[in-house]
Amino acid sequence: MQRITCKFGGSSLADAACIRAAMDIIKANPARRFIVPSAPGKRTADDKKITDLLYAWHNMARQGLDAAEPRRIIEERFNGLARDLGVSFDARPCLVEIAERAAMDETPDYMASRGEYLNGRLIAEALGATFIEPAECIRFKANGELDAGTYHALGERLAGDGLFVVPGFYGAMPNGSVKTFSRGGSDVTGAIVARASQSDLYENWTDVSGFRMADPRMVPKAKRIEQITYRELRELSYMGATVLHDEAIFPVREPGIPIHILNTKSPESPGTAIVAQREATTPVCGIAGRDGFVMFNIEKTLMNKEHGFGRKVLSIFEEHGVSWEHMPTGIDTISVIVRDDELHGKADHIIEAIQKHLEPDEVNVTNGLAIIATVGQGMNHHIGVAARLTGALAQAAINLRVIDQGSSEMNIIVGVEKQDLARAVRAIYEAFDDWR
């Protein structure tokens, strides 16, 4: 019989009606046996996320402040859910434990994970399912990477009949302390559960009916992507497409488990299928972009004749603890693009180190850069993709600061001024919307 892992996002579990809808989806297919819930999301625009309240509770406790208000809201929220769902679940014992540990833990990971933990307990009781504590079987190495032994340990816990609920977002370090993934990390937990349970499909239920070719906030009528590969999605997720956490691909890619992005509010909608391979009928499947980048520009005559120059450049960034994103080059130029939030005031120190160790003719910094990725495995079968893209930007009077095409010919990266980001995405989308 087919096995399906289902992850439900916070917006899909915001209130009792949402949880009932999720339960109806689970019960509609007996293959849906492995359930990964997020913490409850916002019910209204001015509502508070449970996870945000837990972070606030931790910060207040560390400062010796009274955190009665976030605790009260969390207790009322979960006990109200239990009452509306007709289950006997009581959040108070867990909240007592949280209160005892709140000021003791330096990191907020334990407290931040309690939203998923409480919601997992609640949903497991409502479904009559077996609850699995992630901290007992999802393990990280000392360096923070996922321990591959997780798949075997979790797989053993998921053996047998019936439904299983595994809260998303967290696991544990070798010493047993709770560690969370980055925000949106329940997507990653879902992928881990899918692999550990040897599921045939990973359904990711959210509040949108799949991916669009571009951010609908920038391109309101952007078409739905019917099918996309792991590699294409990885590129788009990293560059700002936020429907799925960009690290959720890794656990399922090796075994080739497909992911299906679906909408709890419209479960009959086809959504988007994420697969290992697909037939590329169009050159571009998606466009994604975000701002917050800085570009270091280095010029030196005969740079290409100087052995190890590129290595020396990157070693300076490494020594300052800054990761690089892209590195477009010319014969006598190298540009290194980094995230602005990586710098933390280090830009001047990096420039000084470049001047000291590399003796460039010129070095300068371009701030306020936005990066846009145009992605599609069909690019290498179509002539003139780059020309059409740059032509669209020129026609829209957008200044192109950098362009870089990967050797795989699956993406073209361009840099523009951050104020031009939305216009640039629209221009690129319109250029490829109907091109076959």
Question: What labels describe this entry?
Answer:
436 residues; alpha/beta; Carbamate kinase; VC0802-like; 2 domains; eight-stranded mixed sheet; six-stranded antiparallel sheet; 14 helices; globular
Give the domain tally: 2
**CATH-level-2 architecture of the largest domain:** 3-Layer(aba) Sandwich
The percent range for helix content is 25-40%
Total helical segments: 14
Low-confidence stretches: none
Characterize the main sheet: 8 strands, mixed
- Overall structural class, as computed from helix and strand content, comes to alpha/beta
Elements, N to C (H/E): EHEHHHHEHEEEHEEHHEEEHEEHHEHEEH
Query: Strand order of the main beta sheet, please?
Result: 3-4-2-1-7-9-10-8
Q: CATH homologous superfamily of the largest domain? A: Acetylglutamate kinase-like
Task: Write a concise synopsis of the structure shown.
The chain is α/β, with parallel strands linked by helices. It folds into 2 domains: 4-275, Carbamate kinase; 286-432, VC0802-like (2-Layer Sandwich). Helices cover 36% and strands 21% of the residues.
What would you note in describing this structure?
This protein is α/β, with parallel strands linked by helices. It folds into two domains: 4-275, Acetylglutamate kinase-like (Carbamate kinase); 286-432, VC0802-like, CATH 3.30.2130.10. Helices cover 36% and strands 21% of the residues. The protein contains 14 helices and 16 strands. The chain has helices spanning 16-27, 50-62, 68-85, 92-101, 109-127, 149-157, 186-196, 230-238, 249-253, 309-319, 340-343, 347-358, 385-395, 421-432, and strands at residues 4-8, 32-37, 130-131, 164-165, 170-172, 178-180, 201-206, 227-229, 259-263, 272-275, 286-299, 324-326, 333-339, 362-375, 400-405, 411-417. The chain has an eight-stranded mixed beta sheet with strand order 3-4-2-1-7-9-10-8, with helices on both faces. Strands 12-13-11-14-16-15 form a six-stranded antiparallel beta sheet. Strand 15 (400-405) and strand 16 (411-417) form a beta hairpin. Helix 2 packs antiparallel against helix 3 (68-85), helix 2 (50-62) runs antiparallel to helix 5 and helix 3 (68-85) runs parallel beside helix 5 (109-127). The two termini are 39 Å apart. The mean pLDDT is 92.
